[in-house]
Amino acid sequence: MEFSAENAIKSDKGLSKGAKWAVGIGTALAGIVTAGILISKHQVGKLKKLYDENIVFQNLAEKIDFKEAKTVEEGIRFAKEVLKVGDVDKDFTLDAINFANKGLVEVSNANKGRLFMPKKLWYREMGDNTLAGVVQDIESPYFGHLRINKKFFEHETLNEKLNIMLGIGKQKTAAESASKAAAKAPEEFKFVCNLDEKLIKMIERYKQSPDSLTIAEKRELWANLSNALRINENMLEGAPLRTLKNNLSLFEKNGIKVDVDDFAKLTNEKQSEKLKEMFTQLREKLGHQPEIDIPYLSPTEIIHHEMGHLQDFAKNLKELDIKRWKIPSFKDAYNDVKAGKTDTSDVEFVDNRWKGLTYKGFKELFEKNPKKFQKKYPDLYEFLTNQETQQVAGSVSWYAQTSIGEFIAEVYGKMVRGEKIADDVLALYKKYNGPMLGG
Ligand SMILES: [Zn+2]
User: Fold this and answer.
1) What is the pLDDT of residue 7?
2) How far does the centroid of ligand 1 lie from the alpha carbon of residue 399, in Å?
3) CA 398 to centroid of ligand 1, rounded, Å
4) Predicted confidence (pLDDT) per residue in 238-273, tens digit
5) How far is the CA of 307 from the centre of ligand 1 (A)?
6) What is the pLDDT of residue 345?
7) For strand 87-88 and strand 120-124, is the pairing parallel, antiparallel, or unpaired?
8) Is 417 within 8 Å of 301 (Cβ atoms)?
9) Using a CB cutoff of 8 Å and minimum separation of 24, what contacts does 205-213 make?
């Protein structure tokens, strides 16, 4: 999930960006480089220490049985003793600590107990949109800690979110808005979603009386309704070519013709438009809205996702962070100065892998100044502009399309749940050196 600005708490003066060495003082080049290396070695050592202290590789039991704790204290003890999480916030509710522990056990078991674990587990307010997060900023005192947003374990927040999704209150009902949208414009096309029976019953109960559902049930319902929306988006917007190929015979059977090769040549956006038109035609032929089945999703998926980030930090961000602080070799620096460059490091190594379009300022720069964006974030630029890459990531989720780091975390979560990973998704995952299960 996304981070809010509050994560970027600077505390360690020794790691301030001021220590970064910029080439450009040509006359004293040799002397500065030497001094630079001394600073750099010190910084690198410090960074390595921070990583080792905060993201710890653990050998847990190969298979851990999860049983819901009866008290908060018991839950915290489980996190510390069985999962070897160093510190846990005391004000966790029973519901929230059981949720966190269950998710962590699932990730650990998928890794046979060999994985990087967070040093601390936090239970705090994190705004309205972020359910959980791992602090990525190495300059933060909370670096590597897993944080869970307590607001998502309160009835008020969950009711608000469910009301919007279920069209309760001022909003139109889901059916109303779906049929109205479909009649009006193809770009608002949405499928009718078939959900697990258990969830349908929850919706009925919720509609009769929101108070009849527990926090855990509301979270389960919210996670699955969000997933249904994501699947709609993936199919229609994220990976339209794949959706077309998967549904080709259905279209043909109903007399809707399309040339797949021509379709493939369109931009993703145009493909998406065309596909929605085709589904609108299909709806007219069938006389009802096409339906899709939504597989059940465990609400602990967010913990799987965040733990994916953590494994990714350990595997890749450590190197990138260290690279950020390393000065260029003397030869490169000398040549750069001779060539008139004042800053040899234009690439934002960490942000290049980790950040993406949902981060502040990224979308604006990407759209307004793609050249500059490309220079700062070359891999991210390639990831965002390569149509095939976008379709592969889009088959996972829209969120996986927004950055390399989110793609990694989304796929990692699927691997933890034992979901099938398509060959092209796995190939892309390996290209970006995504963490594999089992350390
Ligand atoms: Zn994420």
Assistant:
1) 27
2) 8
3) 12
4) 889 999 999 999 999 999 999 999 999 999 899 999
5) 9
6) 54
7) parallel
8) yes
9) 206/162, 206/166, 207/166, 207/168, 210/155, 210/159, 210/162, 211/155
Regions of the chain where pLDDT drops below 50: 1-39, 171-173, 178-187, 327-331, 342-344
Residue-level pLDDT at 177: 52
Give the Å distance between the CA of 393 and the centre of ligand 1.
14
- The backbone torsions φ and ψ at residue 97, rounded to the nearest 5 degrees and listed phi first, read -70, -35
Q: Give φ, ψ of 93 to 5 degrees.
A: -85, 165
CA distance 364 to 366: 5
Per-residue pLDDT tens digits for 105-135: 999 999 999 999 999 999 999 888 889 999 8
Domain ranges of the chain: 1-153+298-331, 155-293, 346-439
Pair of tokens at residue 413: 């979560």
CB 376 within 8 A of CB 352: yes
Tokens of 406: 């989110």
| 104 Cα to the center of ligand 1, angstroms | 16
DSSP one-letter string for 355-413 = --TTSTTHHHHHHH-HHHHHHH-HHHHHHHH-HHHHHHHHHH-TGGGT-HHHHHHHHHH
DSSP assignment of 246-304 equals HTHHHHHHTT----HHHHHHS-HHHHHHHHHHHHHHHHHHHTS--EEE-----TTHHHH
Please give the biggest Cα pair distance in the chain. 78
State in Å: Cα 143 to ligand 1 middle: 15
Give CA–CA dist 368/373, Å, rounded. 9
How far is residue 439's CA from residue 435's CA, in Å, rounded to a whole number? 7
